[in-house]
Amino acid sequence: MGLAAPARSKPRLPGTRAELQYAAELYGPDSSTAYDDEATNAFLLKELPRATHLYLGCHGRIRYDTPDNASLLLAEGEEQSLTRIRRLTAHATRLVVVAACVTGAMNLFWQPEETPAPALGFMHAGAAGVLATLWSIPDAPTVLFVSRFYELLTTDPRQDPARALARTQQWMRTLSRTGARRYVAKLPALKARRGSGLLRGSEQQAPGRPTRPVRQPLRSRLTRPYAGPEYWAGFVLQGC
Fold first, then answer.
1. Residue 239 parent element (H or E)
2. Pick from 17, 14, 7: which is nearest to 38 by CA?
3. How do beta strands 53-57 and 2-6 pair?
4. Which of 44, 5, 1 minimizes the C-alpha distance to 142?
5. Neighbouring-strand partners of residue 130
6. H-helix or E-strand containing 61?
7. pLDDT digits (tens, 9 = 90+) for 60-101
8. What is the reported pTM?
9. How many other C-beta atoms are found inside a 10 Å radius of the C-beta of residue 163?
10. How far from the centroid of its chain's Cα atoms is residue 139's Cα?
């Protein structure tokens, strides 16, 4: 099951819709999906107990001034806090993919031996593993990343999430501009995607200390536009 592009998301998240549509195609007709106004907490509570795989394409938020203030933003302004996530029922869930920003980031200021983030919350709820992110992720490249990850995960029954993640990261590092266009062109759900590369959320920063992504050399960017670590290194797998 999955939900994507919740209503009132700012900025909008058109890439998450393409990701979920493609994942639903791969998993087959039993998939349950919700978009826009239907991407609510009520949908999540209803469908999660029987879901083997869960996808969440939304905004994530974390604050570092409190010990338990991480959340996912759903439709109609609903906020799925870390406390609420821990109370969900996900005992049948093999893998949760949280395609949102900073959902795997650690709050070392308050609990240095723990990770109070949505990723850990889903594991407390019973999920075997969670794929989350350490920082803000750009919308357009993440469409490629998540789609390729699900493709690798579903086409080979022996493929475990860790290996699928490693192969996806390597694929992004070596993907050429031409290769990216060809990949998108063969998949209808991705071909319809037209985006501006906006971030899926923003990590709260200390005043005057903005995060600057590591930039690859210009020549490398022209041939391999997603080789920079900001596009693939932020995805981390916990559990599994």
1. strand 235-239
2. 7
3. parallel
4. 5
5. 96, 238
6. strand 59-62
7. 887 766 656 678 999 988 888 888 898 899 999 999 999 988
8. 0.85
9. 13
10. 10
